[in-house]
Structure formats: structure tokens, C-alpha cells
Amino acid sequence: MDPNSVRTRDDAAAFDRADPLAALRDEFALPAGVIYLAGNSLGALPRAAAADLERAARSEWGSGLVTSWTRHGWIDLPFRLGDAIGRLIGAAPGQVVVADSTSVNLFKLLAAALRLRPGRQVIVSERDNFPTDLYVAEGLVDLLGGGCELRLVGEGGLEAALDGQVAVVSLSHVNYRDGALRDMADVTRTVHECGALALWDLSHSAGALPVELDRCGVDLAVGCTYKYLSGGPGAPAYLYVAQRLQEAARQPLAGWMGHAAPFAFETAYRPAPGIARQLCGTPPVLSMSAIGAGVSLLERAGMPAVRAKSLALSELFIALAERSCRPYGLALASPRDSARRGSQVCFRHPDAWPVMQALIARRVIGDFRAPDILRFGLAPLVLRFADAWDAVAALGDVLATGEWDRPEFRAVKKVT
Asked: Is 130 annotated in the active site?
């Protein structure tokens, strides 16, 4: 697709008519008249997810009651969903499990990584990593009472920070703020050369682009299910432990679901074999029941096709925005090279917050990240090329007219 060939809305709509993924949009319950550009924050609702929730609540819980743990396989839901997600992120069966939140899973795996590398006390991450990843690492360092160190690096500073003291390097595959995509294979190889483990946060890449954990030799990974996987607000997260590390990886939250025999109710803890030892408490069945629908739709689409449409959408969005909005202070924050960009397009603007609020008032829903970032998440199963045209047209009008400069749009909200 040549974005410069799109000169009218009809040109954009022509790409929709030729889009092999177009029919999958109907699998989502989307509000009429809304252009949704925040799938990188919260994925849209798959129609089947609502039906799955209804079935889990009314039939399985309502009628099956406690027998549904076995009759409907609730007890194995973390593993079934984990293997399904594993197919999207290049992980062979038995290496991914759904549990807890991304933050809790990160805590578990950072602690496990330190134990897997005795004598090494340093966790390395980037200053611009997602803040919760840094907070969790800080909390672990504090808990260990000075027994380890968090070493933060700036852009381009990773290799210089790697030495014989580093136990684990914790990075995001796609940067939450600007959408920059890391070369997973290259970085993992560099981390391994110093004897450390590579732990990746896939929250902004899984379901948006092909991920190949096994092929890249990744050791550990975490990710959420409520963005491109469309698992629903606050849906449980997942974690990955490479097969070669599973029997040695001991996480600190030794709950009964991670026990070798949870219903033996033994006094002492014995870790379960394999990925099961990464579990802690009872699976949240209702929220887990909503995850499978979005994952299934992505499997139907195929990640190469999803990535191809994502790149086409982002190239079009950037070309249109720079054509019509550059005179109004808009500057591209995402990498221009599409191979280095995830599935979001980000722009800087000195008044990004009120600009985004004005767009949302027009039912063009993106989001804002401090201090000056307009984020537009391009979920390929939901977004049309004509939507990209309409969204940029609305953005250009908001900027050209100064519509954003109103008190109601400047008012700060609790969630941005």
C-alpha cells in the first residue's frame, strides 16, 4: 500500500473493500459512530466474549456450581488459555500460563531470575520502561534489603550496563509511550552473552505483531490480555517460562495452586512440575472466561496478516497526519521506520491533553500519555482504513479551529 496514493476518503475505503481481515470487524460489539483508537490500552469487546461470560455465569456457575471445576474444566483454564496465547507468541505448549496481573507476574519472575543466577545481584531495565515494571523491580530490591540493585539505562545504554553482576534484563518489547519496537532476538542474544536472563514484557506487542519467544531464545516473559488480546478490563495476565528453566525456576508466591498436589492439603509446600508452579491462588474463572474469544479471532486472522494490516494502517495514519496537521505543532514521536514500530502511532503536541479530550468529544477515542503524547492504537481487527482517514480529518479540524482550547477539555481527569 502506498499511503501517498490515498487522496480521498473513497481511496481509503477502497483498501477496506480489499482487506482480507475486514469481516472480522463484525465479530466485535462496537458502538455506532465511534472510531476506536485505544485498542493498545483496552481492546474492544468480542461478541463471543459476552456469550462466554454469560455461559460461565449462568450455566457453569449457576447450574453446575462447584462441580464445574471438573465438569467444565475450570481447574485447567489457566493452562488451556496459556497454550492458546502461546500460539500467538511463538511458545510451544506447556510454557505459558494465565494467572494474576502483569505486575504480580513480573514480581514472581524477577525473583525467580535472581535465584536462577546466584551470585548476581543486578536487575537492568530502561528508564522509559513502563512505570509499573520499574516499581515492581524497586519493590523487590527493597524487599531484599539491599541484597540486589536496579540499574536503569537510557536509550542506547544497554550494552554498557551489562556485566558479570547482572542477573536479569527486564525490557518491554514495544515501548508504551512512543510505540518503538525492540529487536527481541538481537537483544536477547546480547543479554545471554553476559550470562544474564532476558525477561520481556509483551503487553504492547502480543496480538499486534508476530512474537517468537522460543525462536529468539527468550527466558522469561509476561504480558496482559486486555489490550490487543481483547480479554476485558483488568483481565488476568500471563507469564512464560522457557521449558529449559522450568524445573529450576522457583517463584516466591508459593500458593496452593502452584503446589504439586493442591488437594492433598499438605502442610509443607512442594512446587508443581513445569509451568504449574508459577500459579499461586485460585483462578478467577469469570474473568478468565472472557479471554479466549479475542485470542481465537487473532488465531483466525493469523499474525502475519495482522501485522501487514497494522503496518499499512500506521503508514497511512502518519502520512495523512503529517499532510494535514504539521502546521499546528504536531510532531511524530513514534519511529518512522515501520520495522521499528509496534501497532500504535504517537505524536507530540504541547497541548496533547486537551487536544485528545476534544477528539474524544467527537467520538474519536485515542489516549494521552504525559507529558505531551497523543497515542493512537491501531487494532487491525477493528480499525478500517476509512476510520484512519476520518480520525485524522477530525484531528486536523480540532487543531485548525482551536476547538481544543476550551476549559472542559483542559480539566484533568483521574484516568488519562
From this structure: yes
Helix extents (H) in 9-130: 9-17, 47-54, 68-71, 77-88, 102-116
Cell of 63: 447450574
Terminal CA-to-CA distance of the chain, rounded, Å? 33
Write down the pLDDT at residue 386.
Answer: 98
Among residues 107, 226, 238, 409, the one annotated as catalytic is 226
Alpha carbons 347 and 332: distance in angstroms, whole number: 4
Tell me how far the alpha carbon of residue 13 is from its chain's centroid.
29
176 an active-site residue? Answer: no
Predicted pLDDT at 3: 82
Cell numbers of 23, please? 469481516
375 flagged as catalytic: yes
Residue owning grid cell 465438569: 71
Residue 347 known to be catalytic: no
C-alpha separations of 411 from 109, 328, 348, 402, 406 in Å: 39, 21, 19, 16, 9
Tell me, yes or no, if the pTM score tops 0.85. Answer: yes
* pLDDT tens, residue by residue, 336-352: 999 999 999 999 999 99
Cα angle 286, 290, 291; round to 5: 120
Tell me which residue of 238, 234, 236 sits closest to 220, measured CA to CA: 238
Residue 327 has, within 13 A of its CA and on its CB side, a CA count of: 8
Strand order in the sheet with 373-377: 331-332, 344-348, 373-377, 367-369
Q: What is the DSSP string of 3-44?
A: GGG--SHHHHHHHHHT-TTGGGGGGB---TT-EE-BTTTS--
Task: Name the phi and psi angles at 303, rounded to 5.
Answer: -65, -35
| Catalytic hit among 19, 52, 100, 201 | 201
Q: Which helix (H) or strand (E) holds 150?
A: strand 149-153
Candidates 375, 376, 385, 409; catalytic one: 375
Residue-level pLDDT at 24:
98
SS3 390: helix
Whose cell is 507468541? That residue is 89
At residue 141's C-alpha, the angle toward residues 135 and 142, to 5°, is 90
**Residue the block writes with cell 502511532:** 345
Instruction: Tally the C-alpha atoms within 13 A of residue 300's C-alpha that lie toward its C-beta.
Output: 16
From 120, 227, 277, 369, the catalytic residue: 227
Q: Cell 501487514 maps to which residue?
A: 308
CA dihedral 313, 319, 325, 331 (to 10 degrees): 90
Contact 328, 400 (CB under 8 A): yes
Which residue shows C-alpha cell 461478541? 47
